[in-house]
Amino acid sequence: MQAFAYQQPTSLADAQKAAGASGARYLAGGQSLLPAMKLGLAAPETLVDLGAIAELKSISVINGTVTIGAMATHASVAESQAVRDTLPALADLAGNIGDRQVRNRGTIGGSLANNDPAADYPAAVLGLGATIHTDRRKIAADDFFKGLYETALAEGEIITAVSFPVPAKAAWQKFKQPASRFSLVGVFVSQGPQGVRLAVTGAGPCAFRVKALEDRLSASWAPSSCDGVKIDAGGLNSDLHGSAEYRASLIPVLAKRAVAEAG
């Protein structure tokens, strides 16, 4: 790992100024960036640590919306009584990310900005029709995830919070890779203000919705509605952990389990 400058601003305004330095990168939980730096895959000249900005760590539930600050850790989301009471599926997802060390360091904002194809949070954001708030604008979930490690964020743009509409029903199911605990395939389903939404992570270059399953569940919210739905394996991930065809076959199975869990 090469030498780098380190800055830890205590306000969003100071973070924006610090990011103007040559070769600067924002540091959230560091669960992806720091390993990449150790391997020589990333070499920022300056790290701007967002961990001391208190305004980015809040969790609130107001008027049917759960709002989570970008620097809230997975553990804090999982343990939040407000989230557990209002949106238990999201608390369940956060509580099963990685291991205890990862959950106490990793953040929702860092996960979304990195947009790992097997990350869990993107499925919840897309499956609930959430809104990503930045220091410049608001971005709808359907417009945020663009491709492999690619998002709608502009250079230097900071995620500040994510707001989730509270659905009538929601659930999360994950078939995890046992060593990394990343999603080989994960499915988040909800029935709420935006109708039925079903999002998948781990199967493709980034999280995506499955219209065929959404249409079936919109017509009849029942686990059996997922039976017989065939997912095209074209463009899906294939690696030593599972072929594209295997991942495609897992999607309706996990969707059926999620709907059964949602009730």
Strands, total number: 14
Find the structural class using helix and strand composition: alpha+beta
How many whole angstroms does the radius of gyration measure? Answer: 18 Å
Largest sheet: 5 strands, antiparallel
Mean pLDDT: 95
User: What is the CATH level 1 assignment of the largest domain?
Assistant: Alpha Beta
Q: How does the overall form come out from the CA principal axes?
A: globular
How far is it from the N-terminal to the C-terminal residue, by CA?
49 Å
Name the strands of the widest sheet in spatial order: 4-5-10-6-7
Low-confidence runs: none
What is the number of domains?
A: 2
CATH third-level topology of the largest domain: Uridine Diphospho-n-acetylenolpyruvylglucosamine Reductase, domain 3
Number of separate helices = 11
Helix content percent band: 25-40%
Please write the string of helix (H) and strand (E) elements. EHEHEEEHHHHHHEEHEEEEEEEHH
Note the beta-strand portion: 25-35%
CATH architecture of the largest domain: 2-Layer Sandwich
Structure description:
- By secondary structure, the protein is α+β, with helices and mostly antiparallel strands.
- It folds into 2 domains: 49 residues, Uridine Diphospho-n-acetylenolpyruvylglucosamine Reductase, domain 2 (2-Layer Sandwich), CATH 3.30.43.10; 206 residues, Uridine Diphospho-n-acetylenolpyruvylglucosamine Reductase, domain 3 (2-Layer Sandwich), CATH 3.30.465.
- The strands form 4 sheets. It has a 5-stranded antiparallel beta sheet with strand order 4-5-10-6-7. A 4-stranded antiparallel beta sheet has the order 11-12-13-14, with helices on both faces.
